[in-house]
From TrEMBL:
Residues 23-309 form the Luciferase-like domain. This is Luciferase-like monooxygenase. InterPro entries: Bact_Lucif_Oxidored, CmoO-like, Luciferase-like_dom, Luciferase-like_sf. One of its GO terms (cellular component) is cytosol. It holds the Pfam family Bac_luciferase.
């Protein structure tokens, strides 16, 4: 059991650039800028986007472009990827892209890396082509990327310009124990996707901590958990707002994806028993409620896991309610 206090907890935001019903991707990007600017004022550590493809409700496919857009519109919050799906790309190209970002916005760019395609298999084939099995090269490609971003590569025949010498902080992302072993072996910070794949979370962070090897990048293990967060003035209002997220997850379970839907008073008649069970399993690591409820649940989660950082993701239909949720969550951690 951890004795970490809330006040020592770093807190950040994962933005999936969610497109809501009745709005466009352009509207989504404007709202992301607004959230990031407020998050900066509220003390959030970092603002990350996730690479996904062929999903009508997720507009963050060109992840590095959105990172640059948010970094340009803010002044101090760290901006990065949660994550770049490295097998979709050449390590050299990612080194050049993030090296460029780090050159434009020094000491503000993070590079979180995952090995999944961030989409369905047919789309993955369209992205990767002959490199369809590139996920098998993920450990090697991470090392290549580290080398391209280092000063050590300056005498190589293939160099990342810009990028070389920027040493952009690299994170390993995961939703299984495979990534935990890799992050531990490489001595890198570890971010877990407990917001949609919580089943192996506790086992994965145990493996990571037990096998962690210090590196030039990191001397002690560092765990970030991504968590669904919906905070409102009352438990009832938070539960109502969370029905948008539940409807989104039904789309994931059934394969019938929709834009983010308006909240409803009750999920009765929207999901069947099997869908409800599947969605509730995905929501196992979620903080939904009024301030006191979320504070208690967060303290319990922290005592159980001892994570170093919480990355909140909030699929809330109403923009004002979404901002308010992030503000209340920051207030909880700061003890307000």
């Amino acid at each position: 059991m951890s004795t970490r206090n809330l006040s020592s907890l770093s807190y950040s935001i994962l933005d999936l650039a969610t497109v809501i019903e009745g709005k466009t991707a352009a509207d989504t990007f404007k709202r992301s800028v607004d959230v990031a600017r407020h998050a900066e004022d509220w003390g959030y550590e970092r603002y990350w986007f996730a690479e996904h493809h062929n999903m009508i409700s997720v507009a963050s496919s060109a992840t590095s472009l959105l990172i640059g857009h948010i970094a340009e519109k803010t002044t101090k919050i760290r901006v990065g990827s949660g994550g770049i799906m490295l097998p979709n790309h050449s390590p050299l190209v990612i080194a050049e892209q993030f090296g460029t970002l780090a050159t434009l916005y020094p000491d503000r760019i993070d590079l979180g890396l995952g090995r999944a395609p961030g989409s369905d298999q047919l789309t993955a084939m369209a992205i990767r082509g002959d490199r369809f099995n590139a996920a098998n090269d993920f450990p090697t490609d991470v090392r290549k990327l580290q080398l391209y971003l280092s000063d050590e590569n300056k005498n190589a025949k293939v160099r990342a310009i810009p990028g070389e010498g920027t040493n952009v902080p690299i994170w390993i992302l995961g939703s299984s124990t495979d990534s935990a072993h890799l992050a531990a072996a490489y001595g890198l910070p570890y971010a877990f996707a407990s917001h949609f794949a919580p089943q192996q979370f506790l086992n994965a962070i145990k493996i990571y901590r037990a096998n962690f090897k210090p590196s030039a990048a990191l001397q002690q293990p560092y765990v970030m958990a991504c968590v669904n967060v919906v905070v409102a003035d009352t438990d009832q209002e938070a539960e109502r707002l969370s029905t948008s997220l539940k409807q989104l997850f039904i789309g994931i379970v059934t394969g019938q994806r929709k834009l983010l839907q308006e909240p409803v008073q009750s999920m009765e008649g929207i999901w069947d028993d099997m869908q409800e069970e599947a969605v509730q399993q995905m929501l196992a690591v979620s903080l939904i409620g009024g301030k006191e409820t979320v504070k208690e649940d967060l303290q319990s989660f922290l005592a159980q896991t001892g994570v170093d950082e919480i990355m909140a993701t909030s699929h809330i239909y109403d923009h004002t309610a979404r901002l308010y949720s992030y503000q209340l969550f920051a207030d909880i951690i700061k003890g307000k």
